[in-house]
Amino acid sequence: MKKLLSLLCATTLIFGLVACSGSSTTKETSAVQASSEIASTETTEAPKDSFHIGIVTGSVSQSEDDRRGAEAFMEKFGKDKVTLAIYPDNFTDELETTIQTIVNLSDDPLMKAIIVNQAVPGTTEAFRKIKDRRPDILLIAGEAHEDLPEIGSAADLVCNNDFVARGYLIIKTAHELGCDTFVHISFPRHMAYETMSRRVAIMREACNEMGMNFVLETAPDPTSDVGVAGAQAYILEKVPEWVNKYGKNAAYFCTNDAHTEPLLKQLLEYGGYFIEADLPSPLMGYPGALGIDLTNEAGDFEKILAKVESAVVEKNGAGRFGTWAYSYGYVQSAGLAQHAVNVLNNESELESMEDIAKAYQVFTPKAEWNGSNYTNAETGVKSANTFLVYQDTYIMGNPGRYMGATKVEVPEKYFTTK
What percent of the chain has pLDDT over 90? Predict the structure, then answer.
């Protein structure tokens, strides 16, 4: 019996040791596997597109092209990976709502880039709040309304239309088309903006250089008591007088979208040239001025341009009216989001004009882009993360033609003209 008890105890002890040994081995193996998985995670790039992109724009009623560009990118990249948001129409009076709308996108743990186009007042503050909580998110501002150095201090990248190069290139294009006078139409509120006041100075200087007359005309601000209707009525009334005064070889430019349609309508009727809009697009002013319906062509800018161009030619406007072939607002939303994806996938450099242009051209296959770093007119210092961009100018005709504006070297003196 003693021998039997001794044998049972020994057997129990052996099984216990084996069990303990097995448990220890299992834990050790698991630890090695976990360590291996962590190492693998640290040394292997995350799968492409394993992140989310957020795009904030104005509403369709206020910024249709901006919004449609965001929707086009969502369709391309996937609704499960792209979040769209809209800031209030009256963003100046609803600043806190605007800021919160942008900041809310950073609640998504997979969010890796947020694009705001147009970057209205409040974007800088929103970006600062996001950076405090999520410094890993790329923050990109398109067509910033706030001072460029200010928003550039909060954003990772800022891209605005090139008010410097375009100030020179619009005049150069007008000169090449045979214009002898350039008429600039605006109002005090816009002329208080650095971007617009500098552009006026550049346009005036370029006219002097090319032997053209430069004229400033003032029109009512659509945000004033006269409203949009009153401002447009003023343009309709004044254009015939201006054409009579400055001649049919004068080119016209206005700084406000609401002025564009009546200006185009009357220039088509009475004569004169229009190189491109402040924020160019074949949709900017042309459909209303020409009385054409582009519903069936919606989203297809090559078809939109063809229909607009055909209508311009029918109105005897060939060789006198221009645009960017692809909407600036549309491409800013979609192109900057594409650039963010390229950067996150290590296929592009964030602060590279060449790579920004590459992303834009995904959505503008027939039109080239160019641009440069923003230069502070006071100090002459270039900003590394703020770019001024522009698309080649397209003059409608039979056939139409690109003017090669993106290949023109803008004289260095214009980058500090003020």
Answer: 79
Contacting residues for 276 by C-beta, under 8 A, at least 6 apart: 170, 322, 323, 324, 393
Pair 91, 121: CB distance under 8 Å: yes
Distance CA 340, CA 143 (A): 16
Q: Compute the distance between CA of residue 156 and CA of residue 161 in angstroms, rounded to an integer.
A: 17
Sequence letter at residue 188: P
Count the Cβ atoms, other than its own, within 10 Å of residue 244: 11
- Mean pLDDT across the stretch 370-393? 94
Strand order across the 138-142 sheet: 82-86, 52-57, 111-117, 138-142, 157-161, 382-391, 369-375
Q: How many CA atoms lie within 13 A of 37 on its CB side?
A: 6
- Rounded to whole angstroms, the Cα distance separating 137 from 416 reads 33
The answer to whether 133 and 359 are in contact (CB under 8 A) is no
Report residue 22's pLDDT band, with 50, 70 and 90 as the boundaries: very low
**Residue range 315-360, pLDDT digits in tens:** 999 999 999 999 999 999 999 999 999 999 999 999 999 999 999 9
| CA separation for the pair 311, 322 (Å, rounded) | 13
Q: Please give the Cα distance from 304 to 37 (Å, whole number).
A: 53
Q: Cβ of 328: how many Cβ atoms within 10 Å? A: 29
Q: Say what the pTM is.
A: 0.82
Name residue 39's amino acid.
Answer: A
Whose tokens are 């292997």? That residue is 44
Contact indicator for 167, 209 with CB cutoff of 8 Å: no
| Least confident window among 20-24, 71-75, 205-209, 365-369 | 20-24
Say which amino acid occupies 327.
S
Maximal C-alpha separation, the chain: 129
Question: What are the beta bridge partners of residue 57?
Answer: 86
Q: What is the dihedral of CA 62, 63, 67, 72, to 10 degrees?
A: 140
